[in-house]
Amino acid sequence: MAASDDPVLLITGASSGIGAATARAAAAAGYRVVLGARSQEKLSALADELGGADRALAVRCDVTEWEDQEGIVAQALEAFGRLDVVFANAGFGAPQGFLSSDVDHWKAMVLTNVYGAALTVRATIPALKESRGHLLLTGSVAGRKAIVGSLYSATKWAVHGMAESARQDLHGTGIRVTVIAPGQVETPFFDQPAPENRMVPEDIARAVMYAVSQPPHVDVNEILVRPTAQER
Questions:
Q1: Which of 49, 148, 175, 205 has the fewest CB within 10 Å, making it most exposed?
Q2: How do the domains of the chain map onto residue ranges?
Q3: How far, in Å, CA of 128 to CA of 196, rounded?
């Protein structure tokens, strides 16, 4: 396969954590990558690390802005001519307790985790239909069980529902849909140092690459992955 025919993977929330680890894993597997996040400086450094303009495109993208979502897709298609995999990964959390977090932080979290993911789905469907590609969303173990006082948990329940709704909506198009549901991962999501039992972003990147590496007739709809030391 010529380099210009290599598949293309677009990631939101790509500047650090799971997004950056997935970009590195995808690049190592032969993908060209489109990196989206709000931090242009971090994205540009990662793009340089992954091979520069021929292999990696860094695009500043606020996932809550429709124009940014349209823009990153347009730039991906202009640079690489195709879009094979999309990973709607941007998101962040909030402290537990309905009296614990600033309401503006809540609003930004809901817009990013839910509305932003939905905009990524909407913006990328036409290109994914062309490639009969693969859509992935970052859910959470917290999207499978209610967490005490956690609006973050509620946003991830929404993402899990969104993934299944998208799967049904896209049935017959050839697009596969996967929700990746991590347990505790050491990422910038957490403000405090991680205990030793947390996973690292590379663990989740391997789960992403497992899903996308399946043959076209196999759709891994959900991967829930916990550290062995996590009880719930």
A1: 148
A2: 3-225
A3: 39
Where b means 16+ CB within 10 Å and e means fewer, 145-156 reads: eebeebbbbbbb
Which one from 31, 115, 152, 210 is the annotated catalytic residue? 152
Q: What count of other Cβ atoms lies within 10 Å of the Cβ of residue 71?
A: 16
Whole-angstrom CA distances from 73 to 52, 65, 231 are 18, 13, 39
Which string of DSSP letters, residue by residue, matches 51-84? Answer: TGGGTEEEEE--TT-HHHHHHHHHHHHHHHS---
213-230 per-position pLDDT tens digit: 999 999 999 999 999 888
Residues paired with residue 35 on neighbouring β-strands, in sequence order: 11, 58
Nearest to 121 by CA among 161, 148, 157: 161
Question: Per the structure block, which two tokens stand in for 133?
Answer: 């590609």
Residue 23 in tokens: 């970009």
Distance from C-alpha of 170 to C-alpha of 177, rounded to nearest angstrom: 9
For 182, the 3-state DSSP assignment is strand
Tokens representing 192 are 């405090």
Amino acid present at 197: N
Distance in Å from the first CA to the final CA of the chain: 44
**CATH, domain range 3-225:** 3.40.50.720
Answer yes or no: 31 catalytic: no
Amino acid letter, residue 57:
L
pTM score above 0.85:
yes
pLDDT digits (tens, 9 = 90+) for 137-188: 999 999 999 999 999 999 999 999 999 999 999 999 999 999 999 998 876 5
